[in-house]
Specification:
By secondary structure, the protein is α+β, with helices and mostly antiparallel strands. The protein contains eight helices and four strands. It has a single domain, classed as NADH Oxidase. A four-stranded antiparallel β-sheet has the order 1-2-4-3, sandwiched between helices. Flavin mononucleotide binds next to strand 3.
């Protein structure tokens, strides 16, 4: 292996982290949930304020009802045996809280893969937040925006969603060295 190939090989499993939105009936264990949520709890946050509170949802019926409340964005919860909801303060530095919850969410997504599970991140759209919060007994002053569905992927969910190498834009569109380049892909808002 060439020296430059070694780092890429070492990080291969990180590059392969993908979203799963369809799960089998196989349950997850409390030990898996505890380990994953501890990874979230140990994530870094702005000024180490740890603005999050993690709601572990191990009641399959509750997970499904939260999935219905936030559908279609939260459709991954319709089949997931478990989920983790991240609550953050509703007021104040919203960008900072969203950044921190994103850091914790992605770490838990990766952690799920490391303990033999799969996971999918979903956002609860603003219009659906009150009903999701009601199901989760979230008090005033807090919002639940990010949910992580957890479970064992179905065979279909294990299949690549796109051709090899095609799930992300090519490196030359996205990355430069030593400053901006005109060859970087222009920003195109999703349609
Ligand atoms: C901030 C954020 C919010 C997301 N919200 C949703 C969502 O509401 N519903 C959903 O199904 N996927 C959601 N996703 C997952 C993205 O759609 C997914 O990361 C993207 O399609 C790439 O998928 P892949 O990693 O499997 O290739 C979200 C991802 C992030 C980072």
């Amino acid at each position: 292996m060439t020296p430059s190939a070694q780092p890429a090989a070492a990080l291969r499993s990180l590059r392969q982290v993908r979203q799963v939105r369809q799960f089998t009936d196989q349950p997850v264990t409390d030990a898996q949930l505890d380990a994953i949520v501890d990874v979230g709890r140990w994530s870094g946050s702005s000024r180490n304020t740890q603005p999050w509170r993690f709601l572990v949802l191990a009641d399959r019926d509750l997970v499904r009802r939260v999935g219905e409340a936030g559908a279609p964005h939260t459709r991954a919860l319709l089949t997931a045996p478990a989920a983790i909801a991240i609550a953050v303060p509703a007021a104040g530095a919203a960008v900072s809280f969203a950044y921190d919850e994103g850091r914790a969410a992605e770490r838990m997504l990766i952690a799920a893969g490391m303990v033999g599970l799969a996971a999918g991140i979903a956002w609860v759209a603003p219009d659906h937040r009150a009903s999701a919060a009601g199901l989760l007994r979230v008090p005033d002053g807090w919002i639940v925006r990010t949910l992580i569905a957890l479970g064992h992927p179905t065979d279909e969910a294990r299949q690549p969603k796109s051709a090899p190498g095609a799930a992300r834009r090519p490196r030359e569109d996205m990355v430069t060295r030593d400053g901006w380049s005109d060859r970087l892909a222009p920003w195109e808002p999703p349609t």
